[in-house]
Amino acid sequence: MCFSGVVGISKGSVWSVRFSSIALCAWVHGDPRKVVYPTDSSGQFCGQKDTINENKTILFYFNILKCASPIVLINLQCPTTQLCVSKCPDRFATYIDMQGSYRHNKSYWEYYRQFCKPGFNKPWKVRIYTYISIDVLKRCFPDFSTKNGILTVANQTTFKDGRGKTRNVTDLREAANGINNVLDARSVGMKIFEDYASSWHWILIGLFIAMIVSLLFLVLLRFTAGVLFWIFILGVIGIIGYGIWHCYWEYDHLQGTPGSDLTIYDIGFQTDFRVYLQLRQTWLAFMIILCIVEVFIILMLIFLRNRIRIAIALLQEGSRAIGYIMSTLFYPIITFVLIAICISYWAVTAVFLSTSGEPVYKVMANQTLCKYANLTCDPETFNTTNVTKLCVGAQCTFAFYGGESFYHKYIFIFQLSNAFVFLWLVNFAIALGQCTLAGAFASYYWAFRKPADIPPCPLFSSFGRAIRYHTGSLAFGSLILAIVQLIRIILEYLDHKLKGTQNSFTRFLLCCLKCCFWCLEKFIKFINRNAYIMIAIYGKNFCTSAKEAFFLLMRNVVRVAVLDKVTDFLLFLGKLLVAGGVGVLAFFFFTHRIPVFTQETPTLNYYWVPLLTVIIGSYLIAHGFFSVYAMCVDTLFLCFCEDLERNDGSTAKPYYMSASLHRILGKKELISKKVARVDYS
């Protein structure tokens, strides 16, 4: 049994052992080859080495008309015989044609026989037909095309089925509904893969530039926080302004170009996204969106200018703290590695879970004439039963992978548990980083003489304390957040499943629940973040720290709204500038607009593939480094509020804040003789 290992384990660790047992069972029972290789009616993989199908890598369907949709084909559950072949048919052929030429031309039978079961040598009993098809996802699909609005297969509008009856290719439409979309998606996927293969090293260079720029900005913030952030703001405005000008230039340049006045609705969905860039409407829409964003940012700057000055001053204090503890800038790398491990664990376990199970065989026959249709069967003993006599033409055919054991019945529950463990581990990794950084910055604030009283290796010491003393509190806070996130996932799943059948009341109820749990998740993240700061300062448990942090913030709610959120806004503008700047550089590079690198620029199918990768990656890198600043500001703010409540500036209870921070955040006077320290900041 997979779960026998939990016997005798203490209650405190039984759940972790159970979750580990799920992964162990998945790795034992799962087989990722089922995702890669198609499977024939005997349950054997097509193209698997050391088998009779080693050189037969493609799956062929005897009667594709029985397949309801391409999704059924891809899921290997089409109710027809499936056979591994070396190549797809390249001609129309039926058993009548084959029988007519069998006596005169044996080569016709040799071609036709490759689409029959191995060992079959009775051409007079053949009841299949072949059609011109192509390899799609290692499966033979009809070679559909549209000519003058008429659906054809290899330029033919008719074909003969297995009984010699002439059929129109439109009869294949139901079975092939959406195949063109599958083909287009596969084509786009292959082109994207080719683009990544030819540009991955340039993408890494772009991400490295983003990392260097982010680090450089953070280092410079120690000395010129105000100047750099105003540069950030003006830079973002300038980048958006350039975008508006470029969109207008493209819009004006396309005037008079044939076809440019068509609308997006007229051309419909196109896999070649460059088609949309040839439309004036596309650039007009881009220009309107950028104008709205530009006006919004300018209005925000006008109305929040005074509060922005306060936030910049607080960031300057934070930059001093980071200047004394430079190692904190590199801690996001640890968080990134931990999250990458969590993602890898979840993905591998999910793949193994989804490929768990043994081959399940079912009786394939006419359901109206055979009561045994769709019942499970054993292929080894099927021919000895009465089913073949009672149901003429019935076959015991592979249907899907599954099982009747306890493990196989609850695969969905195990997948849900795996997702829950993933959310819990990711939240714990983030919580560990927040608590570690908060402890390091708190050691800076509560140092009476800065930097003389800052303890050595504050980041390493804070990490050690978090691991040794606060693991339970961090795990508990992460558990609460993971539960809420799992409920949100379940609600999204229910909304997706019930979308076609739900009434107005159900839609309203689901919408309300999704909104409520979204708000709850945001609130818990806010509480957890500040609770971890209080844990790092005082070392109390999660519940006590969360309560004290909440009421402390409520007593300073105006300062929280003004300083914390405006600071977040400024940091967000910084992320946009880093991502936008590197993105513009990547745009000019991948579109061959930098003369120096014209020869080195790779030829791409879609230049937006590496461009979007660089932009998104740059934003995530900037987010990682700027999150250190955000945590620093939040920690210093909570320490400041606590300092104001516990101390009064007297000799007995001196303030620990710097004189500049004291002036910035609301105290009009600072009596130097009451502060028995030298402010080295």
TrEMBL record:
Carries keyword RNA-binding? no
Q: Which reaction does it catalyse?
A: choline(out) + n H(+)(in) = choline(in) + n H(+)(out)
Q: Name one GO molecular function term.
A: antiporter activity
Q: Does the keyword Cell inner membrane apply?
A: no
Coiled-coil segments on the chain, per record: none
A GO cellular component annotation here is: plasma membrane
Report the subcellular localization. Cell membrane
Q: Which stretches are transmembrane?
A: 200-220, 227-245, 283-304, 324-348, 421-448, 469-491, 569-590, 611-631
**According to Swiss-Prot or TrEMBL, what is its membrane topology?**
Multi-pass membrane protein
Which keywords are on file for this protein? Antiport, Cell membrane, Glycoprotein, Membrane, Transmembrane, Transmembrane helix, Transport
Give the family this protein belongs to, as stated in its UniProt record. Belongs to the CTL (choline transporter-like) family.
**Biological function:** Choline transporter. Choline/H+ antiporter.
Per its record, how is this protein called by name? Choline transporter-like protein
Q: Organism, per UniProt?
A: Chelydra serpentina (Snapping turtle)
Source taxonomy: Eukaryota, Metazoa, Chordata, Craniata, Vertebrata
